Amino acid sequence: MVILQTLIAAMVTNSPSFPGVAELRAWDPRGWALALLLHVTVAEPAFYWAHRALHRGPLFSQYHAKHHSSPVTQPLTAGFGTPLEALVLTAAMGAPLAGAFAAGAGSVSLVYGHVLLFDYLRCMGYSNVEVVSHKAFAAVPALRYLIYTPTYLSLHHREKDSNFCLFMPLFDALGGTINAKSWELQKEVDQGMNDRVPDFVFLAHVVDVVSSMHVPFAFRSNSSLPFATRLVLLPLWPVAFAFMLIQWFCSKTFTVSFYFLRGRLHQTWSVPRYGFQYFIPSAKKGINRQIELAILRADKMGVKVISLAALNKNEALNGGGTLFVSKHPNLRVRVVHGNTLTAAVILNEIPSNVKEVFLTGATSKLGRAIALYLCRKKIRVLMLTLSTERFLKIQREAPPESQQYLVQVTKYQAAQSCKTWIVGKWLSPREQRWAPPGTHFHQFVVPPIIGFRRDCTYGKLAAMRLPKDVEGLGSCEYTMERGVVHACHAGGVVHCLEGWGHHEVGAIDVDRIDVVWKAALKHGLTPA
């Protein structure tokens, strides 16, 4: 369709009767008025009757059925069809322009403005995102006959026997083909999307500039697949970079995606900050303020659980969420870091016959919990840390009979004979070479380490697959496949499903690792 319209435009602009571009006025209000009149009196009724004809007999089966083959519409569906349909659309778009130019009222602004507005309205109708609120239609009832909605068009694509108009439902009303469910369904969808309070919120942040284009409202097809750097998106990097700067100075937490689980609405919100900003000392206060405002907003809305993702629960930033719970002791929303389930996922990956593990990032929140859990199972833990003080503090937390299983080491060479490495700190190729052949690297480091050793195996980041009855999940969580979420996200889901009334912030309660794991399995979550 794009090529066809380009060829037609080239033919028109190069015809002897067409004035040179240099001779065209930039603006002529007469042309806009005439184009609007011709759109309503010519383009709209002509498209309506042509569209109805395309739904009959062989015209539908041999031509228009292709357009209806998309089970879920998206903006690109607006231009997907046969050459015959492209000609119909081109005529509907071109008639108002041709009339305005024939009357001597054409202008440059009319050409670009009309085409952009036409394409925008087409794409809006196929977007599955309600742009005009149902409240506007309730306040001005006549408006429902002047502009269609994505719900209106979705009904046409689903039922195929109503709602044939181009943009104005007025012609469906005149032709007796308007679907009676159109406006009530639009209200229901709009209210469901914008007015319903989520039960659970996963509070994430942007990783980097390239991954910022993975959000559903930027490119739905891209977000429906696990994140990867795609060459086709690289030309848009400057645009994404500009948005990063705008968000840095003037933005607030926004909704990224949602899904339904057992009748409950779960949403992912994002703090408008990027990964590298968390390591800028001067940005710490502003980031905590953004997280705090998101928690207070969730509390005011009536959200039951809010789970902090990745760097939003960094110990150096806010003590794993303790800052907010201490500052606001009367919060009704439960603040959760989800790391208890993260620890459980990692621990349940370790084979039952393992007697010794090598642990990096050993004094971190997760490292501490993993070490204390394993030593209780009489598994020897080689804890890599240069801080004897931190090591002894953790060792004293273990039962007296288990303390002997915690061993401080200061060099990677100490793990030359250990084939189970639990990695909580980035490993360079040089550091990985100390692992013996056949080693398996379990990971809780972000970003995950690169697998340089071909004679070793590398685990993925701790993740869980959501229950099978999840609905409406149209996007992937970063590099995970659809339906799989990070373990800390899953931990918040379990907290919500169980209805637990405590906050899960600060240090991980080792006694609750098995409790959370069993609860996750009970609710149908499975290791990914």
TrEMBL record:
- Any one of the GO CC terms: endoplasmic reticulum membrane
Keywords recorded for this protein, A-Z: Endoplasmic reticulum, Lyase, Membrane, NADP, Transmembrane, Transmembrane helix
Q: Where is the Very-long-chain aldehyde decarbonylase CER1-like C-terminal domain?
A: 357-527
Q: Which SUPFAM superfamilies match?
A: NAD(P)-binding Rossmann-fold domains
**Which InterPro entries does the record cross-reference, listed alphabetically?**
CER1-like_C, Fatty_acid_hydroxylase, NAD(P)-bd_dom_sf, Sterol_Desaturase_Related
Q: Where in the cell is it found?
A: Endoplasmic reticulum membrane
Cite the Fatty acid hydroxylase domain residue spans from the record.
37-177
Transmembrane feature ranges: 231-249
A Pfam family assignment: CER1-like_C
Q: Which GO terms describe its biological process?
A: lipid biosynthetic process; response to stress
- GO MF entry, a single one: oxidoreductase activity
E.C. number(s) listed in UniProt: 4.1.99.5
What is the superkingdom listed in this entry's lineage? Answer: Eukaryota
Describe its membrane topology: Multi-pass membrane protein
Catalytic activity as recorded in UniProt: a long-chain fatty aldehyde + 2 NADPH + O2 + H(+) = a long-chain alkane + formate + 2 NADP(+) + H2O
What does the sequence similarity comment in the record state about its family? Belongs to the sterol desaturase family.
The entry's protein name is aldehyde oxygenase (deformylating)
The source organism is Panicum virgatum
